[in-house]
Design goal:
- It is a single chain.
- A 5-stranded antiparallel β-sheet has the order 4-5-8-6-7.
- A hairpin with a 6-residue loop joins β9 and β10 (182-190).
- Helix content is 35%, strand content 22%.
- With 264 residues, the protein is of the alpha+beta class.
- It comes from Pulveribacter suum.
Length: 264
C-alpha cells in the first residue's frame, strides 16, 4: 500500500472543504478500498465520512422517506420505518452483497459510485427519488449519467435521498452468483399519483427507465400487460456472464416477476 493521509471530519462543511481541495471521499469503502488494494485508485488523501453523524438516519417527511447518505445497507433493511412505508426498498437493501457488505456499505456511497450493476440506483430511479447534496437537490432522472457517472460536481457531497412513498413497488434481480450484483435487476413502482416507473439495472452502462413497460403498466398493472413488451437489446451489454440478448430476456422476466410481487 502506498502513502496517503487520512482525515475524519465531524461536520459537512469540513468534509466538503477537504473534498474540494482534492481529497477522496470514503463512505462505506466497498468500492474504494478494493480499488486501492488493486492499485486502480491512488488518492493522496482519504476523507472518512463516518465521523459526520448527521449524514446518517431514517425519518418520515410527509409522503416521503428521507434516508441519510451514510446510512448502512443493513440499517435500511432492518428499519421498521422503511419496512412499513416502502417494503420494496427494505427488501432491496437486504439482498445487497453479503452480511459484511451490508454492515459497511452505505446508501450515498452506492448512489454516488453508480456502478452499472448496483441495486440502489434502481430504487432511486424507479421511485423518482430526489438526491439532496451540500449544494442542491437533484431529481433521479437528472442524476444518473452513464457508466460510473453522475451529476455530482467536484467536492459535492450527497447528504440524503428522499424517496416518495408509492402505492406499491417491488424489486427483483437475477444475481451474478459470485459478486451478488444484479446481472439484471428491475424496480417497478406505482406512485401515489397512479403513474408507473420501471428502472433496470445491470443490463447496460448504467441504470435506465423502460418507458414502454411504464406505458403498458399504466394501462394495466399486471404481468400480462408487459409480457409482450420487449427490452431493447441495443441498450444491453454482453460479457462472460451473459449476452445482450440474454440480459434483454432477463429484463422482461424480472419485470413481470416484480409486477406480480408488487400487485400481490
Amino acid at each position: 500500500m502506498y502513502d496517503f493521509t487520512y482525515e475524519r471530519p465531524t461536520s459537512r462543511d469540513a468534509a466538503q472543504s477537504l473534498a474540494r481541495a482534492g481529497g477522496q471521499l470514503l463512505a462505506g469503502g466497498q468500492t474504494l478500498l478494493p480499488s486501492m488494494r488493486l492499485r486502480l485508485a491512488a488518492p493522496g488523501q482519504v476523507i472518512d465520512l463516518a465521523g459526520v453523524a448527521d449524514l446518517a438516519g431514517i425519518r418520515r417527511e410527509g409522503d416521503a422517506l428521507a434516508i441519510g447518505a451514510m446510512t448502512r445497507h443493513h440499517q435500511v433493511a432492518e428499519s421498521s420505518e422503511v419496512q412499513g412505508a416502502i417494503p420494496a426498498l427494505a427488501q432491496l437493501a437486504a439482498c445487497i452483497g453479503d452480511r459484511q457488505v451490508r454492515a459497511r456499505g452505505t446508501l450515498g456511497g452506492s448512489v454516488a459510485n453508480n456502478d452499472p450493476a448496483a441495486d440502489y440506483p434502481a430504487a432511486v430511479l424507479g421511485l423518482g427519488a430526489t438526491v439532496h447534496t451540500t449544494q442542491r437537490q437533484i431529481a433521479a432522472d437528472d442524476f444518473f449519467q452513464g457508466l460510473f457517472a453522475t451529476a455530482l460536481d467536484e467536492g459535492e457531497l450527497i447528504t440524503a435521498i428522499h424517496f416518495p412513498i408509492p402505492r406499491r413497488a417491488a424489486y427483483v434481480k437475477f444475481r451474478q452468483p459470485a459478486s451478488r450484483f444484479a446481472l439484471v435487476g428491475v424496480f417497478v413502482a406505482q406512485l401515489a399519483d397512479g403513474s408507473v416507473r420501471v428502472a433496470v439495472t445491470g443490463g447496460g452502462n448504467g441504470v435506465f427507465r423502460h418507458t414502454a413497460m411504464e406505458q403498458a403498466l399504466a394501462a394495466s398493472f399486471t404481468p400480462q400487460a408487459i409480457a409482450s413488451v420487449p427490452a431493447d437489446e441495443s441498450r444491453m451489454s454482453g460479457d462472460l456472464h451473459g449476452s445482450a440478448a440474454y440480459r434483454a430476456h432477463l429484463a422482461g422476466v424480472m419485470a413481470q416477476r416484480a409486477v406480480a410481487q408488487a400487485a400481490a
